[in-house]
Each structure stands twice: as structure tokens, then as C-alpha cells.
Design goal:
A hairpin with a 3-residue loop joins strand 1 and strand 2. The chain has a single domain, classed as Folate-binding fold, CATH 3.30.2270.10. The chain is built from 2 helices and 6 strands. It has a 4-stranded antiparallel β-sheet. Strands 1-2 form a two-stranded antiparallel sheet. It is of the alpha+beta class. The protein has helices at about 35-40, 80-90; strands spanning about 1-5, 10, 15-20, 50-55, 65-70, 75-80. It is globular.
């Protein structure tokens, strides 16, 4: 499986570590225990399109948000996680 790294081009998935649902970059800041417990323990397991966090461990050590079809493993795109996070804070995502 090839991941289209936004800065380095197509890279083999073996260079990356899969970290789970991309919503992990939206860590709660309210201090509410129930909200933090949901953040830590509740995960979706969708069939179809899913946004995931991948870490380029054997490369530039960047974090990516990869959009992947979990049924076919087709990768539809990848963005730097910092850009996704900034866009959410600015309200453009």
C-alpha cells in the first residue's frame, strides 16, 4: 500500500505506524472526566471512508491524516496533521 505523503510523494506504508482514528488530534481541554474517558476509550470501527492518523516513523517523522477506504484499503489522500489541526482551529475544516 502506498501513502501519498504531501511533502515526499508516494511512500510505502511500511515506513509508517498506524495510530488510529484521526479524531485523536482533537483532544478535549475541558477537564470533564466523561469527555476524556470517551476520548481515550471510545473508537469507531467504520466500514468505508475513514480518516486515520499515521506517523512517518521511518522517514521525516511527520504525522499525517490519511483518508482511506477500510473495505478496499484504497487511499484517497493524505494531509499533514498540523495543517488539519490548524484548519479546525480556524474553522475552515
Amino acid at each position: 500500500m502506498l501513502i501519498p505523503h504531501p511533502l515526499l510523494g508516494l511512500r510505502d506504508a511500511q515506513e509508517f505506524t498506524y495510530l488510529g482514528d484521526a479524531r485523536l488530534i482533537e483532544r478535549p481541554t475541558s477537564g470533564d472526566e466523561a469527555e476524556l474517558a470517551d476520548y481515550v476509550f471510545q473508537r469507531d470501527n467504520p466500514a468505508g471512508l475513514h480518516r486515520e492518523l499515521w506517523f512517518h516513523e521511518q522517514g521525516d517523522r511527520s504525522w499525517l491524516v490519511v483518508t482511506r477506504n477500510t473495505l478496499t484499503h484504497e487511499i484517497l489522500g493524505a494531509e499533514l496533521a498540523r495543517d488539519v489541526s490548524l484548519a479546525r482551529k480556524e474553522g475552515t475544516a
